[in-house]
Amino acid sequence: MLEQDVTTMAKKSLQLGRAVEWPHAPEEAQLDRVPNPQKGTDYLVRFTVPEFTSLCPVTGQPDFAHLMIDYAPGPWLLESKSLKLYIASFRNHGAFHEDCTVMIGKRIASEIKPKFLRIGGYWYPRGGIPIDVFWQTGRVPKGLWVPEQGVAPYRGRG
User: Fold this and answer.
1) 34 and 70 in contact (C-beta within 8 Å)?
2) N or C: which terminal CB in the chain sees fewer CB atoms within 10 Å?
């Protein structure tokens, strides 16, 4: 498929292959999608985000998480550069762990319309308590291999 075809078929002009400014907030970030060349096949895509950061909305202190995003593509794939920019937009964003995790899952699902999506937010402890947040759309397609996310319960992750 030609680059122009991908750009035309995508929802907006892609950020891939050109310099773009870092978004200052999640609502400013553009998530790009590209056509799924294997849309007749059920398969799983996994994005691992081991260095996610956001800010505590109360104290302004940094919060850190290991995010695992799994999805079974429908008509669209999530373009990874746009995901990196979107994830980076949370660095100065104040929100609770639960809000960040679910917000990311819902935004991706609304943009790419996957057959299935799940996100695991494995948050590092502050105040001695780690918080893990999980969200998913629908059910796993029958017969789809969905491996465990592989992030152990907190015991000094790292």
Assistant:
1) no
2) C
5, 32, 63, 100: which is the annotated catalytic residue? 63
- Give the pLDDT band of residue 8 (cuts 50, 70, 90): very low
148 annotated as a binding-site residue:
no
User: Is 97 among the annotated ligand-binding positions?
Assistant: yes
Q: What does the pLDDT average to over 116-124?
A: 97
The DSSP code for 21 is P
Q: Does residue 21 have a known ligand-binding role?
A: no
Q: What gap in Å lies between CA 15 and CA 86, rounded to an integer?
A: 12
Is 5 considered catalytic here? no
100 has catalytic annotation: no
Using DSSP, state whether 106 is helix, strand or coil.
helix
In this prediction, residue 156 carries a pLDDT of 59
Q: Which of 5, 32, 42, 56 is labelled catalytic?
A: 56
